[in-house]
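Customer escalation, tier 2.

The customer says the design service returned an amino acid string that "doesn't look like it belongs to this structure." They asked us to rerun it and document both sides in this ticket. The original structure tokens are below, unchanged.
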């Protein structure tokens, strides 16, 4: 049984948190790209993509995550992934993509790390 793809977005002091829910495949990738493009992201903001409820991700989904990284960089921000499922983490390792993203256990951890990094300057 497949799980329909959806997204939710919430604002935080360090930047937006975009949650990917369900199966992120070639049919869902356009919705992921649209959600990314609509994010209010400014210089110094951190985009957190929360993958807690992501049940499947194919190469189209990985391309969407890379596009999100590019979007954040062009906006002068940064990106972090939260709650990366084990199977996706393994794929990142096999493809040599682990260095592209800051990865945290939860969205709250990612936000805390961002706040701590800005107060240390």
């Amino acid at each position: 049984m497949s799980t329909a793809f959806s997204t939710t977005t919430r604002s935080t002091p360090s930047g937006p948190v975009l949650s990917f829910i369900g199966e992120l495949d070639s049919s869902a990738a356009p919705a992921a790209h649209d959600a990314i493009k609509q994010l209010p992201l400014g210089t110094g903001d951190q985009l957190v993509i929360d993958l807690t409820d992501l049940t499947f991700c194919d190469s189209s989904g990985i391309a969407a995550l890379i596009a999100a990284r590019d979007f954040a960089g062009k906006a002068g921000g940064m990106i972090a992934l939260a709650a990366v499922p084990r199977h996706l983490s393994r794929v990142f390792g096999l493809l040599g993509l682990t260095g592209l993203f800051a990865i945290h256990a939860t969205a709250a951890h990612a936000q805390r790390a961002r706040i701590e990094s800005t107060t240390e300057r």
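Tier 2 assessment: The sequence is consistent with the input. Helices lie at 29-37, 59-74, 86-95, 107-119. The longest helix spans residues 59-74. Sent an explanation to the customer and offered a walkthrough call.
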